[in-house]
Amino acid sequence: MAYAALRSIGAYVPQKVLTNDDLSQMVDTSDEWIYKRTGIKERRIAADNERNSDMGAAAAELALERSGIAKEDIDLVVCATISPDYFNMPSNATIIATKIGLKNVTSFDISAACTGFVYILSIAKAFIESGMKKNVLIIGSEKLSAITDWTDRGTCILFGDGAGAAVISATENKAEAIVDVHTGADGEYADLLMTPNGGSGSAHDDLDKEAGSCFMQMKGNETFKVAVRTLTKDVKEILADNNIESDSIKHFVPHQANYRIIKAVGDALKMKEEQVVLTVHKYGNTSGASIPMAINDIYESGRLQAGDMMLLDAFGGGLTWGSALVPFSPLQK
Ligand code: UT7
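# oxa(dethia)-CoA complex -> structure
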């Protein structure tokens, strides 16, 4: 049987830094409030002419280069995003595949908001284990600044731009395989976090006037409570299902939405500080890009070593959630 192994990671962050102090010039907020309530100090913002697919392509190029797998051997590209270059079509995955010179690939996007990377990990795993594909490039890429309401202090302080990518490939060696991926969703909570306008749910005549209001809206406090409750249950279940103790997790890589959510879930698992990967202070919430950007952070700082077991967890609009147990399994040179 074929198993699926995570071979490599890459990320891209835009140059422009937007600090909490910068935001306090734009809306009624302060560095103190933002840092205390979220753990965020600053976030990156893409340039006007920098597209989501440009960031995704840069992250993908790096992940491919580090994987040791030839471009012509990639047979599937999946992109998780809620801020694609074009809503509906063409897909970001298809644009990115062409930008980086991939031919003869299957490519599509998925929409699972901040849980997107965990979802595309499960898709890569399923395609590989079924034997349909062998080498899958997965990308989480977001230009959230384009769908942020910069007058709403309840949301605009949270989000940032960036991209992360990974190469997942087939292996016969179970020891290097992705152990498990959990995914879940509940549309009963759809209105907690959404972009309410601009889709086909809007009357045709309203589309023009709504075009400028396709921004994210969130009931932050309610979302926060569901996130802590759902994630704590989910990470406990994935560890129990696989007979893995939390102290054998080398890196706990949570979605970077809010330090207080990360801390609550980490504490419930009795994670030590050195196990918990944090980038929220410097990148804010980059939705589907946040987990691969965080994995890239520990890779580039030399903390991520071959064989290290990672526990990923994420939560986002939908509502959606998920977790994954993933060893880092680069191809041996
Ligand atoms: O990634 C996808 C999932 N997303 C999340 O998981 C995000 C979950 N939510 C959160 O992270 C938090 O709920 C927020 C950071 C968004 C808000 O923190 P909170 O502790 O839940 O604050 P709150 O919404 O209950 O607001 C408390 C107070 C309110 O004022 P009053 O009514 O107590 O007078 C808000 O109006 O803080 C006020 N407030 C602000 N004050 C200064 C809200 N936003 C701001 C702000 N600056 N930016």
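# post-check
The chain has one domain: 1-333.
The longest strand covers residues 161-171.
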